[in-house]
Amino acid sequence: MHYFPTLIRLQEFPCVSGYAYGFLPPLQKLCEGLFDSVSVTPAGSLLCMRHGVDARKTILLDAHMDSPGFMVSMITPNGFLKVQKIGISDNNLLPSLDVMVYGKQPIRGVFASKPPHIMTPEERAKAIGDQDLLIDVGFTEAEAEEHIQIGDLVTFSPCVTLLQNGYVSATGLSSRLGILSLLHCAQLVQHQTLPFHVACLFSTGYHTNNRGISSAIYLLNPDMLISLDACPAAFPDIDKRLLCQTEHGPVIHVCDAHGLSLSNALIDCAKENGISHQIMASRSGVCSQSDRAFTSFEGVPTAVVSL
Questions:
Q1: What distance in Å separates the CA atoms of residue 157 and residue 164, rounded to the nearest whole number?
Q2: pLDDT above 60 for 287
Q3: Which of 31-35, 97-101, 207-211 is the least confident region?
């Protein structure tokens, strides 16, 4: 698989958390020939199956495919768009960021804000409230109403930037890395006979209610789950226990919220096979997908591997 062209291709399609319908067709195309069956679950996730010799056992591999975003909630009299957040936590990061509004056709916009030099000291010290979030697309009210309607989705502008030493910066990179990793795994075993069923789930709802992974647990009742995610790399002035080193392999999380048995098994496997890896102690709530899965249905042995 050519990772960089595929990453660029995936960036062309919106995938706001819980609203992955525009992202499914290109992802389904990438899955062609790699699985025995590909289907869309009632929750909106993409479920890809490889059938194994022993039908009594199923391993579930999960990578979320969605990213935080917004939904248009109002068109103001002067043509600005008010939006509702979907999985966004910090409003102070938003002013001046470029966005893409998916109306009748994709429309570029920008989060507008009052210029700092005309703000009062009180305004500069005040946190940005949800009611203050406005997007400027350059339309009048009439033009906006012609091209955009309430409920249209908004994402950060798709962007892929090549950095030095082979590093990449991109919007929604954490989900795209998981997708590419699962597809690469499927390619590696494409022509092999598997000892048990393997289900690859590209799940939705990661940044909202985890509905993709929760419903899949009830649908498949898997014997174990390995969830792929991303974690922050080295950064100045942050506790090193919360970061990973990009040159030292994937991170295997150990966390009481989803048990230790499968995480320890992965660590042992990596050591026995000489696979570079890192171990990170994570608190409950950091890996929300796996936390939810571990307590779903009858309980599923769970581990999280981060890139």
A1: 22
A2: no
A3: 207-211
172 and 46 within one domain: yes
CA distances from 202 to 69, 89, 171, 243, 275 (A): 18, 23, 18, 25, 25
Q: What is the pLDDT of residues 44-73, one digit of tens each?
A: 999 999 999 988 999 999 999 888 899 999
Q: Are residues 88 and 41 in the same domain?
A: no
Q: Half-sphere exposure (CA, 13 Å, Cβ side) for 292? A: 19
Mean pLDDT of 37-47: 93
Task: Give how many domains the chain has, as a whole number.
Answer: 2
- The boundaries of the domain holding residue 109 are 69-156
Which of the listed residues 137, 156, 175 is the one where a domain comes to its end?
156
Angstrom distance (rounded) from CA 145 to CA 13: 23
What per-residue confidence (pLDDT) applies to 299? 75
pLDDT of 31 above 80: yes
Scanning the structure block, which residue is given the tokens 């339309």?
Answer: 139
Q: What is the pLDDT of residue 293?
A: 65
**Using an 8 Å Cβ cutoff, are 49 and 35 in contact?**
yes
Q: Are residues 258 and 172 in the same domain?
A: yes
pTM for this entry = 0.88
| Residues of the chain above pLDDT 90, percent | 47
Q: Is the dihedral of CA 33, 39, 45, 48 positive or negative?
A: negative
